[in-house]
# Entry
Amino acid sequence: MIEMFETKSRTVPITKQMVKEAYRKVKANHGSAGVDKESLEEFQADLLKNLYKLWNRLSSGSYFPKPVREVSIPKVNGSKRKLGIPTVSDRIAQQVIKAYLEPRLEAEFHSNSYGYRPLKSAHQAVESVRANVRQYTWVLDMDIKSFFDEVNHELLMKALDCHVEEKWVKMYIKRWLEVSSQTQDGTLIPKEGKGTPQGGVISPLLSNLYLHYVLDKWLEKQYPHIAFVRYADDVVIHCNNENEAKQLLAAVRERLEECKLRLNEEKTEIVYCQDYRRKEKKDYKKKFDFLGFTFKPQSTASNRGGMFLGYDCAISQKAQTRIVAGWKKENFHRQSTLTIQEIATKINPHMIGIIRYYGKYKMWTLHKLVRHFHFHLAKWVLNKYKRLKGSYSKAFKWIQEIKVSYPTMFYHWTIFKSI
# Structure
């Protein structure tokens, strides 16, 4: 990138290099346009001028963000999740502050917090829960109601005050918190002292800071004998017995209310982790979902041969439903002009992600999901080759012949030898 104009004396110590690095990060993460409808490609068309203008405003204290574009993302249960999409310039500005603050806050965050943190992953969080359910008999499966919409600005700024002295940092964060959302019809919705948009670059960092004080430090201080795992606002708390779980649920409910948050009572449950060591309890739910996996009692192979009742995870039904719905949306089974190689090229990157994530612990649990895909592939075969006369058995035979001849065409064929 061509060097920008010389830096003059500035009231805010943001350098051109900080803006450049932030732009590279935002570019790598892609993302759609904000309320100004300017895409990343359009921003890049006059890159030097756009970055200089942003740096000039950031470093002089005269930067003000535009409203965030509100979009609704459908969820598996039929409801919708609202996202707030900042403009490209605002995403770069947020990335500048995030990169500046993150190392400082990371040094404070709890080791049991995994979401949206460098060198932390969803698999690490799941692995921690897997270890905990072997030691603790009870789980408090928590759901915080509309967390990103309810984050209290005053309390969040108090949390920032504990770690941030720079007035310019807090000034920009306050501006981002207060900026309105713009709906599809152009209506501006003010924040009214709460909410940090899901979709904002800095929102995950701010949310982790908020929950660090609301839950992580509070649990560590008040209940040092229990274990917990938090991935953003998805929280699992492990307890030793039924009474402890009930008392903790009441205490967490009260703590959230003190911090201007609420439990989603319909989705918050006490779960009994039954395995071969623990007696049957018919009055309690015995499974819960976490990060796309369902934890439940299941038959497990013993190292000595034979089977025993363990408590472990496998891909959740919700995750399978979402994946299958995605394949249906691709609609490739109706596109008879496609070749099977073109379908493989399109599907393989998605299938690699599915298998590497959900096949981490028990690969065999993905057999049913892969068979769903083969059913859609068989539909494509029947639409393309009318000579098969609608026979699914012939379509599956045709697929098997292709698999024998080209065993690496589809990624999952290299993993599952028999489908």
Notes: The longest strand covers residues 293-301. The longest helix spans residues 203-222. Residues 355 and 366 are 8 Å apart (CA to CA).
